[in-house]
Amino acid sequence: MSAVDRAWLRMESVENPMMISGVLILDQPITLKRLKRVFNERFLCFRRFRQRVVQQGDKVFWQDDPLFDIDNHIHTIALPGKGTQQDLQQLVSDLNSTPLDFNRPLWQMHYIDRYDGGCALLIRIHHCIADGISLVRVLLSLTDPTPDAKVHHIVPIKEAARSRTLGLQQFARRVIDSGQTALEQGRLFMQSVAREPDYPIKLASAAGNIALDLVKLGLAPFEPRTGLKRALSGRKRVAWATPLSLAEVKLCARSLNGTVNDVLLSVVTAAVHRHFLATGEAIPPCGIRVAVPFNLRPLNKPIETLGNQFGLVLVTLPVEVTDPIMRFRQVQENMNRLKRSYQAQVTYSLLDLFGQGPDMLERRAMKLLSHKASAVLTNVPGPKEPVYLAGARLKQPMFWVPQSGDIGIGMSVLSYAGTVQFGITLDKSIQADPEALTGYFRESFAELLERATRHGSVTGKQDAG
């Protein structure tokens, strides 16, 4: 197991199981037989989903599960009551509070029949297998652009022979690859110097900036003690909002000369601002911070291998700002500053370093870093057109990444087929209502859109004058 993946494995705790979970709501029921064929064809082609984690002392590695059976991972379950969205959210909350079985490959799926005229799938995968962006792309690879796509039978993956000779061959190959990489890097460096004589100075400047970002990360103050930062219970509460129109989000961004990400982060900030107003709690005068995963894997290339390839950036949400336009400008400025930083690369390197060191050192370091954020916020782009899974149309997808340390809030934004999905997961000890927060998200967007279109029309008139 790579050092970074091992770092995420070690973050597993009773309070925060390290699971990435997703809910896929489909417009019609599907047969379990066809669903298993899809998983055999497109999911299990990644060998990692047939392997379990083995720990021997300080060593952690992947091992093919000799007793692997897909029936140990795909289960059928029914909703209690009338099968409403609240019932589904309660079920997701219960399962997301339950850790995966470490005696088997670390994933599980529940097929939920008779939900909203169709069905729903709840999928849980451990973070040590891959990062959220990769797993979302893997799960979406199970789908098709049309409902009548054929699923072909696959040949079961044979267990690779494990011999001493093979191990020596792999070691020799890594040594050769490392040497070739070093020579290639040296050649590229000399070419860069030939083209730009001041390239070494630029390289030294970049190294200085990386060191500066590392110092800034270490010296960042702890989060203020609010109802959003409490000792965790390990019980999760999950909710999601009615989707927004992506066209309206883009209109809002154009009116304010910003990006879609700027708009969505601003709306999340406003939702937290409304939460503080509703509860009567004092609003932190310097805002709060959220940890945002920053992808380091090319999105234009297919996923050939799993694993974690992302860093984390700490984004300040100016929840103390009351005016929607001023709040948007502050978020935009904060994001532009982070885009010019090396914080994502720094945190990825730290995870790699921690994963190679003692378990106690990593836990203390991650606990220290988790004190510097109140929530984790993910923003993942999904398909632009509707997709189909086993013949059924995907109506609404939702995904959540786990929280680490003492962070008890996870927020997720996902674009899909002209909509924007917003979901939240809270530890039960957090003094906030997930249903209320999803409502604040929609109300905050409506307010920003109204102000943005008015602001855009005024700016247009001024430009015309």
TrEMBL record:
MF term (GO), any: diacylglycerol O-acyltransferase activity
Keyword Lipid biosynthesis: yes
Keyword check for Lipid biosynthesis: yes
Domain (O-acyltransferase WSD1-like N-terminal): residue spans on this chain: 1-263
Domain of life (superkingdom): Bacteria
Domain O-acyltransferase WSD1 C-terminal residue range list: 307-448
Pathway, per record: Glycerolipid metabolism; triacylglycerol biosynthesis; Lipid metabolism
A Gene Ontology cellular-component term: plasma membrane
UniProt-listed GO biological process terms: glycerol metabolic process; triglyceride biosynthetic process
One protein family per Pfam: WS_DGAT_C
Keywords of this entry: Acyltransferase, Glycerol metabolism, Lipid biosynthesis, Lipid metabolism, Transferase
Catalytic activity: an acyl-CoA + a 1,2-diacyl-sn-glycerol = a triacyl-sn-glycerol + CoA
EC number: 2.3.1.20
Similarity comment: Belongs to the long-chain O-acyltransferase family.
UniProt name for this protein: diacylglycerol O-acyltransferase
Organism of derivation: Marinobacter profundi
